[in-house]
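Problem 12. The chain below contains 103 residues. Write out its predicted structure in token notation.
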Amino acid sequence: MAKKSLRVSGYGLEIRKPYSSRAQDGSFKVCIEDIKKETDRYLSGAQESGVYSVAGMCIELNITRQTLDAWRDGYFAAEDVHDDAVTRNEELADCIEMGLLHI
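Solution.
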């Protein structure tokens, strides 16, 4: 029996999602740079006001808390969490962890 190939969460997407861009193979992939840019924007504003919150970060990123939790765990889409063919996206998880350091 052939071993099933694994896909890193956020890569090989069939449809465009927020924070994704076209990959060279024609599929879509997560754009960590865009997420980092929005996270940095949130942190700059939070630093000025002295108020940091998970809700504020979700609002800045225009995502739900469920999505933020999935990203923090390294999964770009919630359905990837329970898919054995999808592996954790370390770069995505690290990006979110860095954004949450002050919260």
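Discussion. The chain has a mean pLDDT of 93. Students who got a different answer should revisit the alignment rule from Section 12.3.
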